[in-house]
Amino acid sequence: MNYVNLGHTGLKVSRICLGCMSYGSSKWRPWVLDEEASQPFFRRAVEAGINFFDTADMYSLGVSEEVTGRALRQYARLEEVVIATKVFNPMSDRPNMGGLSRKHVVQGCEASLKRLGVETIDLYQLHRMDPNTPIEETLAALDLLVRQGKVRYIGASSSAAWKFAKALSLSERHGWARFVSMQNHYNLLYREEEREMMPLCEEEGIGVIPWSPLARGLLAGTRKSLDDKQTTTRAGSDAYAATLYDNPHDWNVVEAVKQVASARGNTPAAVSLAWLLSKPAVVAPIIGATKLEHLDAAIGAVEVKLTPDEIKALEAPYQPHAVRGL
Predict the structure, then answer these.
(1) Is the pLDDT of residue 226 over 80?
(2) Residue 282 is inside which H or E element, if any?
């Protein structure tokens, strides 16, 4: 496994991040693996050298954090791994149980620490920006958590570039802890981030850790069409995916991936991840795995190096999209 710094920090992370939304409670989503079924994935990841694990408080309403924390305490050395989690989405329908107020950010962090079973969260991320809370209040709360030693680094996910730039500026002006990472929606089927967010991150030294790097499995090459809902359990129950990938031209990209993969003797998933890893600002795609072969394909992608002609062939069919995933 290869390791790189997370943005302009000294924090070393593996080129693949294991997304832990897939591990927790099947009562939350039918495709989620319960704790016993999740264990082989954490063990395999650690054995392969993956040291970067991403979860969120809302995944299985806290159970994902519990499962992730127990697994990493069993299989990994906590001083070597980077545990990332997120705050924003409501944990219940009661007051102050969501959003980015100082109250919820601090309480959310303390609850995540207990569920993970650690004293400090390595990377604490805003799951989304909160339109109902001044960003100054949120940034000051995050800075407080860093100063208290409850959080080491802070990051954000899926924001308009201008809002992210504003947050970076405010942090610098006030001397607050600054975002070091952006977890955004970026893959071969959705490249609108290349307009503003990717150049901003590259210029500002922000590490990019894309979510849905395989476009909800479409770039894995196993679906028969964009509207194929039968191939996987998640495909049949993930209504959100239909809001992200509904452009008929998207299938041309999938076919291009298959062609490049076939010519190389690689899997479509490995080629799609290798394309992401070829981008300067991308540190580690966040992959979800519910089959061990999914994880192995992602691990193998780190060694795949695409040629300029292959990258051109993969990118050629892309058609612009409306903004999705914010």
Answers:
(1) no
(2) none
> In the numeric block, which tokens belong to residue 229?
């809902």
Looking at residue 87, what DSSP letter applies? E
- What single letter denotes the amino acid at residue 203? E
The mean pLDDT value for 107-120 works out to 98
Confidence band, pLDDT 50/70/90 cuts, at residue 323: confident
Catalytic member of 59, 186, 245, 318 = 59
pTM: 0.92
Place of tokens 């001083």: 79
CA–CA separation, 161 vs 204, rounded Å? 12
Q: State the pLDDT at residue 232.
A: 54
186 is catalytic: no
Q: Between 197-204 and 161-174, two packed helices, what is the crossing angle to 10 degrees?
A: 20
Residue 317 φ/ψ region, left for φ over 0, alpha for ψ in the -120 to 50 degree band, beta for the rest = alpha
Percent of the chain with pLDDT over 90: 86
186 by Cβ neighbours in 10 Å (0-12 / 13-18 / 19+) ranks as buried
Q: Give whole-number Cα distances, 19 to 151, 183, 249, 261, in Å.
A: 19, 11, 28, 24
pLDDT at 325 over 90: no
Among 270, 239, 230, which residue's Cα sits nearest to residue 15? 270
